[in-house]
Design goal:
Blueprint lengths: L13 H5 L2 H6 L24 H13 L11 E2 L5 E5 L7 H4 L8 H11 L20 E5 L12 H16 L6 E5 L1 H10 L14 E3 L5 E5 L4 H5 L5 H16 L1
Parallel strand pairs: 2-3, 2-4, 4-6
Antiparallel strand pairs: 1-3, 5-6
Helix pairs in contact: 5-9, 6-7
Length: 249
């Protein structure tokens, strides 16, 4: 009988674990920090289209006045050939820091993997002005505001979809779209006018879309999925290896 392979553990950056949210949230924005500007098309920092989410943000600002607590912009290369679509900001993560997947556990595996495959200048994301750059990649979310219990309602996903639609309309025709979870997967398809029923979500599933884009699926890199081994680092890396292969063709 062969011996079981050693479990690959995640390296959690000390700064990400120990830096207080106040440090992460209140650093003044700097030009060229990679966050999409509030242009009203791809992103609107003042958006209040979803009453439940707007109310939740308002309550969050009162309870955690040092948090960013606003819609979170896409982060990365404006001309990226890889666009990663997540679910929504985490309350103590992107909602606190103002950068997608920054400040919570889900971002640890994501940024380490991006760096390993040459899509990020550093393997950790600490705050939105830490000098980290994404290279030919961008991270966006299906919903730009943090939802209660990390669960946006269907109408909230629909309300936010026009921002993703504008973002993908400006993307290269052969862009690789990497969906983290089924909500991101379905949001991409609806954005492109495609029926989710024709493209079944599954980890490492890959689809060539009518417009020339490629869609690759991955289980979300949440703490729950990684702790339960539904998603392992090896599984996640295989998806990014495929994305890199497609981009280099």
């Amino acid at each position: 009988m062969s011996k079981p392979s050693a479990r690959k553990s995640l390296s959690v950056p000390r700064t990400t674990k120990s830096a207080p949210p106040k440090q992460l949230a209140l650093v003044d924005d700097q030009p060229g920090n990679g966050l999409w500007p509030s242009d009203g098309e791809v992103f609107d920092r003042t958006c209040t289209d979803c009453p439940r989410l707007a109310k939740f943000l308002e309550a969050g600002r009162k309870e955690y006045p040092d948090y960013y607590s606003a819609p979170v912009a896409p982060f990365g290369d404006r001309k990226a050939r890889l666009i990663i679509i997540g679910l929504a900001p985490g309350f103590h993560g992107a909602n606190a820091t103002g950068r997608p997947f920054t400040g919570d556990y889900a971002g640890v595996l994501l940024y380490q993997t991006l760096h390993k495959f040459g899509f990020a200048s550093k393997p950790e994301s600490i705050h939105r002005n830490d000098g980290l750059q994404l290279l030919d990649a961008r991270i966006s979310n299906a919903v730009k505001c943090v939802p209660p219990d990390n669960k946006p309602l269907p109408d909230e996903v629909t309300n936010c979809n026009h921002y993703l639609q504008a973002e993908l309309a400006a993307a290269p025709k052969d862009v690789v779209l990497l969906a983290l979870g089924s909500i991101g997967h379905n949001a991409v398809l609806r954005t492109l006018g495609l029926k989710p029923s024709a493209y079944k979500f599954g980890h490492a599933a890959e689809f060539e879309l009518p417009g020339g884009q490629r869609l690759i699926d991955s289980y979300h890199c949440s703490r729950y999925n990684t702790n339960t081994r539904r998603l392992t680092p090896e599984m996640f890396e295989a998806v990014f290896a495929r994305a890199r292969q497609l981009i280099q063709k």
